[in-house]
Each structure stands twice: as C-alpha cells, then as structure tokens.
Amino acid sequence: MSYLEDDYRPTVTGEVTSRFLPGTSIEIVREIPPGTRFRHVLFDFDGTLSLVREGWPEVMVPMMVEELQATGTRESADELGRHCRDFVMTLNGKQTIYQMIRLADEVRARGGTPRAPSDYKKEYHARLMARIEARRESLRSGAARPQDHLVPGAFGLLSALQAMGLPMYLASGTDEQYVVEEARLLRLVPYFGHRIYGAIEDFRAFSKKMVVERILRENEVEGSALLAFGDGYVEIENVKSAGGVAVAVASDEAGRSGRPDAWKRDRLVGVGADLVIPDFREAPALIAYLFDR
C-alpha cells in the first residue's frame, strides 16, 4: 500500500562508473552539467543531519517481532526479525506510518487482527522516546553539544550555504512537531527558519514530493535550481524526478567513521544520486565542486 510515496525501486541498473574528487571521499557518480545554478537547498533530517534518533531500527524491529509472534506464527524470532528488518529498511525514508501499515498487513497475513497503523506508530514512538530521551535531555541541559548528535561537518556546510544566501529547507518523515523540537535542540533552526516540514496526522496530506513541488511552485524556479542532501531514497528520487541534483549522504550513523555506509551508498546510487558523501567533513571541497565549477 503506497499512497503518495512509491516503494523503493532501483532506476539505475548495471555497472556504475564514478570518480572521486582528488584527495577526498566525495564520489561523483554523475557530473553536474555546466551552467547549473542552485537557488534552493533541501535537506532530509534524520541520518542526514541529525543523529538524535540513531539506532531506531533496534526499537522498531523488536516491537514488530512481538506483534507478529502474538499471531501464533510458527516462525522463529530470528526469522521474524530478519523479515521485519528487510521491509523496515526497504521502506526507510518514507513516513513512519508506512512501516506501520506494512506491519498491519503482516499481522493480517498471519491470521491476526491488526491494530490501527496509527496505534502501532504511537507505541513505537513511545519506545523510541524512552531510548533517546537521555540524548535529548543532554542537549537541553547543555551537557552535550549539538555537534555530538549531528552528522560530522554539518554546521560547516550549513554556514557556507547560508553565507551564499541560499534558502534551505528541511523535509522529514518524522512527525513535524518532533522535527521542529529536535532541530531547535540541535541549533539548526537559524539555518531553516520556518521552512521545516515533517509528517502530519493525515499522512496522505504530506510527502517529501509535495515539499519539492511547493519549493519549485512558490519560488517559480525549474527543478534544476534545486540541490538536495539525503540519506533516504525518497528525497533523492523526488528531487531527481523534478530535475534537480541529489547528494547522497551515506552516513555511518553509529560509528561516525568518515567512511560511507555501503548499503546506503548502493541504495541511493540506485535511484539516481549524483554524488555520494559519507558526511560533511569535506564541505569546502564539496562547495567548490557544486558552485565553483
């Protein structure tokens, strides 16, 4: 059940030839056309900028396994865990409710009577908040710096883009109220202002595609004027479909190693990402390539 956001399907097949900017880990999969002038920049939130929710699959998948075990299925916990992780990660990048819709379908397929997807989402969120509350509180109290819970180099890139006078937008599959709150804790609001968008109760009335269309419509610009950064396939696919340029942020969320996450990299190249970066530590070289070619 897809509604307004398509499921992940690779659009780029076969061998991909790419190059790296000399002396960097910035992978160029597709050269930016000469004369491209970016006027607006879109960011995903979780995994692209924020690491506050790092580890969320370790909350979502066990909850789903519990629900499926309650149907009386003969599948083992390990089998269910692998199955749930597969579809959870396949749907990653879409609004959380889509993963809960899939959970309801899985319960039904095993002869159970599912709860409403919105109920599953509430339970998942309660469990997730219990896991990450210490991180949020450390940011509130000042015990942790925003940089401790951001993808490395984020402030450097955002400051450079802001200095260029480029309007920046946040679009997230996380509920908007929490995106705004966590963006505030991470000191990101000065870069985005009111241009922060997230999931709402009526999930059919929000999608990242709608945000992309709104940016282009309200500013009367072509898709080629839009630059996007994301670690999920949805924003990469939406921006490429609109004619923009997409930078895949293949972030190592847990390790912050500076090396790209191979699974993310391959997944995002598969939907047309033009560049791949592991984080924003090499922002000066990235800015130079994108804007000073």
How would you portray this structure in words?
The protein is an alpha/beta fold. The chain folds into 2 domains: 19-51 and 150-291, Rossmann fold (3-Layer(aba) Sandwich); 57-141, no CATH class. The protein is 44% helix and 11% strand. It has helices at 57-69, 77-90, 96-109, 117-141, 154-163, 176-185, 189-192, 208-219, 233-242, 262-269, 283-291; strands at 19-20, 27-28, 40-43, 168-175, 196-199, 226-230, 245-249, 275-277. Strands 1-2-8-7-6-3-4-5 form an 8-stranded mixed sheet. Strand 7, helix 10 and strand 8 form a beta-alpha-beta unit. The radius of gyration is 19 Å and the shape is globular. The relative contact order is 0.20. The model has no long low-confidence stretch (mean pLDDT 94).
Span from first to last CA? 43 Å
Mean pLDDT: 94
- Could you name the CATH topology of the largest domain? Rossmann fold
Gross morphology: globular
Q: How many domains? A: 2
Number of helices: 11
The CATH C-level name of the largest domain is Alpha Beta
Main pleated-sheet profile: 8 strands, mixed
| pLDDT < 50 stretches | none
Strand order of the largest sheet: 1-2-8-7-6-3-4-5
Q: Note the beta-strand portion.
A: 5-15%
Radius of gyration: 19 Å
- Give the number of DSSP strands: 8
> Structural class from helices and strands?
alpha/beta
CATH architecture of the largest domain: 3-Layer(aba) Sandwich
Helix content: 40-55%
Order of helices and strands: EEEHHHHHEHHEHEHEHEH
CATH superfamily of the largest domain: HAD superfamily/HAD-like
